[in-house]
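User: My collaborator sent over this chain with a note saying "see what the structure looks like." That's all I know about it. Can you take a look?
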Amino acid sequence: MKKIVTRALISVSDKTGLFELARGLDRLGIEILSSGGTFKALREEGITATEVSDHTGFPEIMGGRIKTLHPLIHGGILGRRGTDEAVMGDHGILPIDLVIVNLYPFEKTIADPQSSREDAIENIDIGGPAMIRAAAKNHDAVGVLIDPKDYHRILKELEENGQALCDKTRFELAAKSFQHTAAYDRYGENPHQDGAFYRELTPPRGSIPTAHQVQGKALSFNNIADADAALECVKQFDEVPACVIVKHANPCGVAIGQSLLRAYQRAYATDPTSAFGGIIAFNGALDAETATAIIQQQFVEVILAPVIEESAKLVFATKPNIRVLETGTWDKTPPPSWDFKRITGGLLLQNLDQGMVDSRDLRVVTTRSPSDQELNDLLFAWKVAKFVKSNAIVYAKEGQTIGVGAGQMSRVYSARIAAIKALDAGLKVKGSVVASDAFFPFRDGVDSAAEAGVTALIQPGGSVRDTEVIEAANQYGMAMVFTGMRHFRH
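Assistant: Without extra context I'll predict from the sequence alone. Here is the result:
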């Protein structure tokens, strides 16, 4: 049976091509339902449309949050032609044969450093994904359009096919729509890739596989990887309260403090822009005061701590989508393990990097030795640098990261980026120390650090140009220590 499009629902954030499409539907005699800003835009263009609230008899409420979530809308989309006509008739549900929807620009919003937490929340689309999924599920009868690039060809098919879409077209549009909503819900992942998480038979305690998820949405592939990076980094600090914020597998803010709240505030201050949408890990029992500060300050994907106090759980319960993990305590000396990396046609395997140094392992190579405060900061920065993608540069001062440069092809550029990030965050690099995960191959890295005001450096040593690098540090009156250990992280 030919499935004629008699009624279309349009609700779009991106209004590209909207008016041409709507005029074409109107010429074909297809009734248009619309809501919110889309309805106003159509009316201003002189295009006939029925507002959703008039169709349902129920007004838009809660600032537009409730518009299309109504049985007359979803019944019209989901009703199976040839099966559900009787129940649709009983409840006055008219069929909706074409759904034209695109979603609030959530990804664009959170990428804007000027956007607030409220902006991000209001750009989480609820009704849009629901309508898209409903139409895609019922693609045997309903067409769904999410991409303005498809408007012209779909309008042409309706015009040439007696106001109907063929089965093949509806199926293709449904597949594209499912991919679209998957990408929207799984921001930060590639929706065309399937994922799975496997536990070892005996995973170490206090790790992601043994953690208990207190609340929140299911953990995604990237959530798990980033949560592991944050947790393993915060484990390096076992004597004082510490907080690690990770974004895209790199620590963007790390700090210690007299309390978890103070540690969080200092870690967040390192790079508030990158912290937005990040993963936050603590090394102590998470309390209500710290939990409240987090949700008032930023949008967060995952929060981890060995213990989540009951009072903190009540705070997080007001934000049910936040993923909260209680890891339990961990061993100070973890058991040996392996690091795997897949390549095409093979598998790389090496011992997990569990190495670390203390003050007794350091070798002072410059004329000036570090002060006690510099030495503490050097060891702090070194612990952080171990978890930053190479080439890694970490500026730190008084137990707080000041700037982090990660993953650059040139070490000197990592140093410059770390300084730029510190400047953007309003933090002073002058008087800080710097850690480099591998040796400085040239003196330009030292030159860059000195120009920024760094007073001491920690690095593995071992370059053929060590003498040149040491001389540069002496020239600037810097203290430099060698660890004899590097922490490449690729």
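A starting point for your reply to your collaborator: The CA atoms of residues 256 and 262 lie 8 Å apart.
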